[in-house]
Design brief:
2 domains, single chain, 433 residues, Jelly Rolls, mainly beta
């Protein structure tokens, strides 16, 4: 294997790495005889005819080509569901879940994914799914790739080590990792167990949002994104190659590790990002800005300004707005919001929304601060205040999230979430300004 060291990257640029000196061909991508007797193979993350600045692909120089495996056979993973989501009807009710209790039985990443809600359809390359994941053992004898979409990991507890075709990434709570569609990998906890949230993006690949009037600086900086360096393993044994294909799971026998890439070059690679490096933009005068200013990554649609899914965070930050209701305002949104809490306390719902919990507010469903948060927001002295040691996030989509049967029936679902607003009383007095 090569080193686990990472190097800095930007987006949509060309990067290259080699675990053996001179393993990477120069001058052409597919020479008649690649160095060291390797095979040249391209992994395409976009259509061949995509615009140059949107074209994504990586050339692998590997010990064996990816086609070397036996036939795939189906197997079941009943709790990892895929769009179209038809088990339940679209639901306008506001929903919230307590943290789901991790299963006690041994399970690796593939077995430990549970879908909470989703939208769109993998077959149409649109929409996304929101999952939770649990893992208490590594993927020692099997490898996985997802044919349906890219995977955005949001760890909550425990560090996860990803061994990919491009190399190794270690990701802990407070960081995120993205594994591209079709990229083979293994995932496992660095300790006894790990858990977190997972967004499966069926649509266009995640990228940085435009900055517009913000200018050249702010939000996530491209140079803070890290990719692995080339690292290969040349070993043979009885392994399983697992894929998720159009919502169903398939496995094939393979007699060698597919993580045998000695060198690679391209821009379709796994990456990680430390969320503490996000440059938060906020108001320094009055009014609470829209949550779009907290967007880390976006999967755009063909309609300018309309996202298939945005990944948005609410990190530690200063609040200084004057004469302003500082908690998130009451609103009904065109977009649908799936939210989670990594650590700390969320200012709009200080009680009932615990780390590991989730909420779902679909399009045009009213939501906002609970009664206690409203009282504090209207009575607090508006001195500069630092929201410390908090990190919440949101998967925000232009399509309605449909919850799964598992999510609707789990004991973790709060049956009376609406009760958090019942304490909101009328303060209207037409005689009082």
């Amino acid at each position: 294997m090569g080193s686990e060291l990472k190097y800095l990257t930007g987006f949509n640029n060309h990067f290259e790495s080699e675990a053996l000196v001179a393993a990477l061909p120069h001058g052409q991508n597919s020479p008649q005889k690649p160095p060291f007797g390797l095979y040249a193979e391209q992994l395409s993350g976009s259509a061949f005819t995509a615009l140059r600045h949107e074209n994504q692909k990586t050339w692998f120089y590997r010990i064996r080509p990816s086609v070397l495996h036996e036939a795939f056979s189906p197997f079941k993973q009943d709790l990892w569901r895929t769009g179209p989501f038809i088990d339940e009807v679209p639901n306008p009710n506001q929903m919230r879940w307590d943290p789901i209790i991790p299963p006690k039985k041994p399970m690796d990443f593939v077995d430990g994914v549970m879908t909470i809600a989703g939208n769109g359809a993998a077959a149409h390359n649109m929409g996304c799914a929101a999952h939770v994941y649990f893992m208490n053992k590594p993927m020692t004898d099997r490898f996985f790739y997802n044919s349906d979409g890219e995977l955005l990991f949001v760890p909550r507890q425990g560090e996860v080590v990803f061994r990919t075709e491009c190399g190794v990434l270690s990701v802990k709570p407070g960081e995120i990792a993205v594994i591209p569609r079709g990229m083979k990998f293994q995932a496992g906890p660095s300790g006894d167990a790990a858990e977190g949230y997972l967004c499966e993006n069926y649509g266009s690949n995640f990228r940085l949002p435009g900055l517009g009037p913000i200018g050249a600086n702010g939000l996530a900086n491209p140079r803070h994104f890290l990719t692995p360096v080339a690292a290969y393993e040349d070993k043979t044994s009885k392994f399983k190659l697992v894929t998720k294909f159009q919502g169903r799971f398939w496995e094939a026998e393979i007699d060698h590790s597919p993580l045998d890439v000695v060198a690679w070059a391209g821009n379709y690679v796994p990456y990680k990002y430390d969320l503490s490096l996000f440059n938060t933009i906020n108001t320094v005068s009055f009014d609470h800005p829209d949550p779009s200013i907290f967007t880390v990554l976006t999967s755009p649609t063909q309609t300018p300004g309309l996202a298939n899914v945005d990944f948005v965070i609410f990190p530690s930050r200063w609040m200084v707005a004057e004469n302003t209701f500082r908690p998130p305002y009451y609103h009904r949104n065109y977009m649908s919001e799936f939210m989670g809490l990594i650590y700390g306390q969320y200012d709009a719902k200080p009680d009932g929304f615990a780390p590991g919990g989730m909420s779902l507010h679909n399009a045009m469903s009213a939501h906002g601060p609970d009664a206690d948060a409203f009282k504090k927001g209207t009575e607090a002295e508006l001195n500069p205040h630092y929201y410390e040691k908090t990190l919440a996030f949101m998967f925000e989509s232009n399509q309605v999230f449909i919850p799964t049967s598992f999510a609707m029936s789990t004991p973790s679902r709060q049956k009376d979430y609406l009760g958090s607003w019942r304490g909101l009383k009328s303060h209207f007095d037409p005689k009082k300004r």
